[in-house]
Amino acid sequence: MSLQLKDLYDKFRDPATIKALAKLIGEEAKKLERPINVMEVCGGHTHTIMKYGLKQLLPESIEFIHGPGCPVCIMPKERIDHAYILAQQPDVILVTLGDMIKVPGSKGSLQDARSKGADVRFVYSPLDALKIAVENPDKTVIFFAIGFETTTPMTAALMDQAIERGLKNLLFHINHVTVPEVMKELIDSRDVHVDSYNNRIDAFIGPSHVSVIAGAKIYEPFPRAYHRPVVVSGFEPVDVMEGVLMLVKQFSEKRCELEVQYRRSVTYEGNLKAQAMINKYFEKRGLFKWRGLGNIPDSALKLRDEYAKFDAEKRYADILPKEEIEDHKLCICGDILRGMAKPTECQVFSTACKPSSPLGSCMVSSEGACAAYYKYGGVM
Amino acid sequence: MKTITLAQGNGGEENRQLISELFFRHLKNDILQKAEDAAVVEDGTLAMTTDSFTVSPIFFAGGDIGKLSVCGTCNDLAMMAARPCYLTLSVVLEEGFETRKLEKIVRSIKKELLENGAKVVAGDTKVVPKGSVDQIFITTTGLGEVTVPGISASNVQKGDVIVVSRDIGRHGAAIFAAREGIELESAITSDCASLWPMVEKVIETGVVPHAMRDATRGGVAAVLNEWAEASGVCIEVDEGEIPVSETVAGICELLGFEPTALANEGTFLLAVRPEEAEKVVEILRSFPGNEAAVQIGEVTDSYLQKVILRSAWGTKRFMDLPTGELLPRIC
């Protein structure tokens, strides 16, 4: 009998298991001395919590704070403008992943650029850009690369293949970002205009797919230096519930550790081959501006100098603006991404700002907190 | 300068906005504003509808653009309990289109007309320069005879139960798989089919559905939301009861879609009195391909104009209208 995809996830959505975990969490939470705020760093977890209504199963003493882990949400307008401008260059095909085409920059979204005649394509895998480049030798194909540790190895693999095949018409605009640096930023903010978040986040749920690549080791400093426990969890409802249980237990047993719930594929070291591939092509970028969070040191990657000829940011440096752009005044995406506010606290949520006409990126991405609240929120 | 985006043709929120803010604003009249699947005219005796068909690829597993152009229009008539009688057929062809392919499409049209007992009584053909259209666009208009009056999206009543005629999302999944070259171990075929034979059988047994609608673009989620809004009721659905084939569920898992947002071309929903539900399900299941017909929920007054999805572990959430283009998730 062949294995069905269903067999892989069915037991992680088993109603009896979910209910049993909810009961255990409830019992364990009674031992807590105070309520705890758990930040799920990744938008994927936010969606699991909302889609499966998991909050409804948990005691009031456990609060979720939604974190900045959505590659679309954290993209500042100036970077989207880069993509918009690149897409409009003659003989350019701009290629990117999923939701990115919907995010508004100051000039419009890539979707708008496409409706005005630009050749913008979205792909499922960065390697699809290779095929587009091979099929269009007279065009310059620019891959607008986004994502956390999860998608970076695929961009590196694309680069590897492009070099191996001697492709001259495939360029990269790199926007890869890294999780630990932004987590540190949330605890250690240097921004004098923003209240300290220090007292709000008690613990983190770390995204499993990031650690499949980068290893659980990336969260080591948090329990040790920042006194925040971390549990690396999967995305199925049973995974998230078990992750929450593990965190609550740490509090009730007065422990502060790094633990892995998603033991089925996360190791401490991660995927060393993928890490080597990333290191071959990329290096840390000194500063990268995150939407709503400002410039965070060492929180993003760029192409190494020896690959400058593939770097669209360098090749098109003359036409790409460098100045920073403010977000919409009414949009509080920044506070939401920092865990300071809930989407429903935004005065334009579901009125002036909807998935069909987003003001801010948190409403655009299928992983954004506002989109999750809009789509699944509101009942009970 | 505002321009039209692909998202405005998605059958969801943006599509609805475009229709209401532009077409309805300028062209509104009593009949159009009812926004039913087909317009009921001539003192309720006739139903009329029109639809344009553009699909890529034009030949797909389970159908082709010809079959689709008859099913789509006849199904809109059937959803008003109107027997499809006359169709018009308007074809726009791209220069260079193979005659052999056109003949295959016309044969397919003929076959599907027979299923419905309808005939094409007028038509038009245009050929445009290469690149002006994507191979072939077909527009069909249908006229049908109303057999039972009063069926309407605004006639869903508290206490009604919701029945779905088969497993959902097949057309959307099949087109996606074909278009994106997703290779699957088990092939997925579109549900593309004519619904009139099933509707006729239901009506013959004396059941009068309060509402019927085929779940095309926007999927089951769009139909339920339209009903909840138009009838001012709450529709509560059990997620675990909604029939989804394993292949469709697999495609949704891989790409991050919801089966309830995927298009169908031969799947419909009925709102019927609770005492009629069992009989309706039995009739539907007697048609090949519809063995999964089932009751998926009921109509209440707990959150008016909203659709609620109930999970098997006791949580609830709203099921909203699909928005935007269907895009795969990033990570």
Please supply descriptive tags for the structure shown above:
heterodimer, A: 380 residues, alpha/beta, four-stranded parallel beta sheet, 15 helices, 34% helix, B: 331 residues, alpha+beta, seven-stranded mixed beta sheet, 24% strand, globular
Can you walk me through this structure?
Chain A is of the alpha/beta class and 380 residues long. Chain A has helices at residues 5-9, 15-29, 43-51, 77-87, 110-115, 128-135, 152-164, 179-187, 208-214, 221-225, 237-252, 272-281, 312-315, 333-337, 369-376; strands spanning 36-42, 62-69, 92-97, 119-123, 140-147, 170-176, 203-207, 230-233, 258-260, 282-290, 294-303. In chain A, the strands form 3 sheets. Chain A has a 5-stranded parallel sheet with strand order 2-1-7-8-9. A 4-stranded parallel sheet of chain A has the order 4-3-5-6, with helices on both faces. In chain A, α3 (43-51) runs parallel beside α15 (369-376) and α7 (152-164) packs across α12. The termini of chain A are far apart. The mean pLDDT of chain A is 90. Chain B is 31% helix and 24% strand. Chain B has 8 helices and 14 strands. Chain B has helices spanning 13-27, 65-78, 99-116, 170-180, 196-204, 219-231, 246-255, 274-285; strands at 39-41, 46-53, 59-60, 63-64, 82-94, 119-128, 136-146, 161-164, 211-214, 234-238, 268-272, 294-300, 307-310, 316-318. In chain B, β5 (82-94), α3 (99-116) and β6 (119-128) form a beta-alpha-beta unit. The radius of gyration of chain B is 19 Å and the shape is globular. The chains are: A alpha/beta (380), B alpha+beta (331). Chain A binds chain B through residues 2, 4-6, 9, 15, 18-19, 22, 44, 50-54, 56-57, 71-72, 97-102, 111-112, 114-116, 122, 124, 146-148, 150-151, 209, 237, 354-356, 365-367, 374-380, and chain B through 3-7, 13-14, 17, 180, 185, 246, 249-250, 253-256, 303, 308, 311-318, 320, 323-325, 327-331.
